Amino acid sequence: MIIVQQKPLKEIFEMTKNLKKLLIVGCDGCSSVIQVGGERQANILKSLLEINRKVKGEKDPSAKAISILRQCDRQIVTTALDPIIKDYDAIVSLSCGVGVQTIADLFQSTLIIPAIDTKFLGMHDTKADKFHEMCTACGECILFETGGVCPLTRCAKSLLNGPCGGQANGRCEVGGWKNDCAWILIFNRLKERNRLDLFTKFRLPKDYRVSRHPRELSFKAENEEATEA
Ligand code: SF4
Ligand code: SF4
Question: What is the pTM of this model?
Fold first, then answer.
């Protein structure tokens, strides 16, 4: 999922300063699942904005908190916000950068305030209460060859043929030997699966043209091409 983190309140207060009618919009997708940006968090942020204004002796903002199914879907955003957006000076979004940009693109005359920082694509370890970056969406997945460990993301140097000379006892020199060396993990996984042939395979430099921004994908066009062929 997309891992996000709420911005410091000071920053949110500054961005919403002097705005009277605020619509605080949570997202029931990734940011809600990790309890950063769902309906509950939208309501909490509304209360904090109101308290901050009271403490500073300013007039209350007229704020409303809602949450929508997904802020990264144009149709869902249009259906949810189109009937009400005209009543507000600004929208405070509790979604990842994709959701913020979807709203900004659909409602170009409304001020959009991001209350969330988008961090990375990651795995949630609920027991340890930690998030780990796992994938950088390179566009051509090679996890089959690497025992299910992504070297592009989990090797600090994104090496396609490793390990480098900077590993010691299975730990990576980058960051002071705190993290596992991804290539030692890959070696161990492939050994366990009797596929060390994949470990010794030489991988050519990656073709980064497939991951150049901004990317587009149309399943409809691809299906039509496949049908014609
Ligand atoms: S190789 Fe790594 S970065 Fe590329 S798609 Fe697979 S997991 Fe993601
Ligand atoms: S020690 Fe391992 S994880 Fe660190 S940069 Fe070298 S190969 Fe990558």
Answer: 0.92
